[in-house]
Design brief:
The complex is a heterodimer.
Chain A lengths: L7 H9 L4 H13 L1 H19 L8 H10 L21 H7 L9 E2 L4 E6 L7 E7 L8 E3 L3 E7 L1 E4 L2 E4 L3 E4 L8 E2 L5 E7 L3 E3 L2 H4 L11
Antiparallel strand pairs in A: 1-2, 2-3, 3-10, 4-11, 5-8, 5-10, 6-7, 6-9
Chain B lengths: L10 H17 L2 H21 L2 H5 L1 H15 L10 H20 L8 H4 L8 H18 L4 H11 L5 H8 L3 H14 L7
Helix pairs in contact in B: 1-2, 2-4, 2-5, 4-5, 8-10, 9-10
Classes of the chains: A alpha+beta, B mainly alpha.
Chain lengths: 218, 193
């Protein structure tokens, strides 16, 4: 059971398709773990479809119907569905697609001796998506954000000043909140983070790193 | 809320299109498909025109793309899970999102179908629940204050984020957020938190 969920704004923006790709990935991954949010999303899709039916219909030319009818036999191959539902401990297929493989195939960069980061290419030019691997018991140095940070726990668990987060938990932090995420003692923690602006370390010994933490969205 | 005059006959209309879509799935009947087209293509076009300028400029292309997907995917349609209108709306939303990214030369390994997975639950009670949701939402939307409804239209039909809506209506972001929350509450949606 997940305890931390995306808020009303994020869910509405996700379901309506207005949320940026990178953030949508994070919400979508949460839905894999969370029955309650899947249900909320279903309802919001219903809302969308009711609004859709209320639109004032726009005149469509008969020639368009003929064009479409003419194309029906052209492309007979059915489109395959890719299910992204996950078993408890598996790596979600959506992440696998972004990683082009497994956690082991990734190129990890050391952020400290205990924390590694691997950036994922989503095509989103504004938001950075990265996987963080925090060794058991280790912390990401205390930091704040210029923008908003979304985090979803994929494996293990971490805690910060405000709670303890396990697989599937969804955490949103903004510029006003500084925190020190720490992996639990039992095992390493892997989470996916989405940033719309670089994070800023507040601890003096890491401050010198700040200028190097340019956002690497791709 | 603009009421599409004379067309709204409640739940029956929805069932009619769900039956029609099922027939298309089972028999590949092109005449039935043409009926679906005549009803939904004008709505999909409206949906495209409501969207970004980029989507609006490609409205007819979107209509084509969505309707061909409807034809191709029809066998995957499960009337117990969703009404035809909901199913077609989600395809239109996915296509509009993908089209927007494509037109912006947004190079990504992820498509809209990855972002919004099909609900995998086949359970009957889910189906019953969803029908109930749709009926309730349709009814209660009529009584929703204009200021809340307007924002939902902008988010869902025009594809605008809450901040974009706030800017356009010259409202603080907090006001937009709280109106959406109020709307969720009125419509009894669990996304209200």
């Amino acid at each position: 059971m997940t305890k931390y969920h995306p808020d009303t704004r994020l869910l509405n923006e996700y379901s309506s398709g207005t949320l940026a790709l990178a953030q949508s990935v994070c919400v979508s991954l949460h839905l894999n773990y969370c029955e309650q949010c899947r249900r909320a999303h279903q309802q919001l899709q219903q809302l969308g479809s009711v609004l859709f039916e209320e639109l004032a219909p726009q005149q469509v030319d008969d020639s368009l119907l003929r064009t479409v009818m003419g194309r029906l036999d052209d492309e007979p191959e059915p489109l395959s569905y890719s299910s992204t539902a996950v078993e408890d401990d598996d790596c979600p297929p959506l992440i696998q697609r972004l990683m082009k493989g497994d956690y082991r195939n990734l190129e990890w960069k050391k952020l400290s001796s205990q924390v590694r980061v691997s950036r994922l290419r989503t095509g989103d030019a504004v938001n950075e998506v990265a996987l963080y691997h925090i060794n058991a018991g280790a912390s990401i140095p205390k930091h704040t954000h210029h923008g908003t940070e979304l985090t979803l726990v994929l494996e293990g668990a971490f805690s910060d000043e405000e709670g303890r987060y396990e697989a599937g938990d969804f955490v949103m932090r903004d510029a006003s909140q500084q925190h020190t995420p720490t992996a639990t003692q039992e095992r390493d923690c892997i989470c996916i983070g989405v940033l719309d602006a670089p994070i800023k370390f507040t601890d003096w010994k890491y401050r010198m790193v700040n200028p190097f933490l340019k956002l690497q969205a791709s | 809320m603009a009421d599409s005059a004379g067309q709204n006959t409640g739940g029956r209309r929805e069932d009619e299109w769900s039956v029609c879509l099922q027939t298309v799935a089972q028999t590949q009947d092109k005449q039935e498909f043409a009926k679906l087209f005549k009803h939904f293509a004008p709505l999909i076009k409206a949906f495209a025109l409501n969207g970004s300028a980029l989507a609006a400029a490609h409205a007819e292309e979107l209509v084509q793309e969505v309707m061909i997907k409807v034809w191709q995917k029809a066998t995957a349609y499960n009337p117990h899970k969703a009404a035809a209108s909901t199913w077609i709306y989600t395809i239109a939303r996915n296509c509009r999102t993908d089209m927007y990214r494509r037109l912006q030369k947004f190079d990504t390994p992820i498509s809209a179908d990855d972002i919004w997975p099909e609900g995998e639950s086949d359970e009957m009670f889910v189906a019953v629940q969803q029908k109930r949701d749709a009926t309730r939402i349709r009814e209660m939307l009529q009584d929703l204050p204009h200021e809340q409804c307007q924002i939902l239209m902008k988010v869902y039909m025009e594809g605008k984020s809450h901040s974009e809506v706030a800017e356009e209506l010259d409202l603080p972001l907090g006001t937009v957020k709280s109106r959406v929350r109020l709307a969720m509450k009125k419509l009894q949606l669990t996304a209200e938190r």
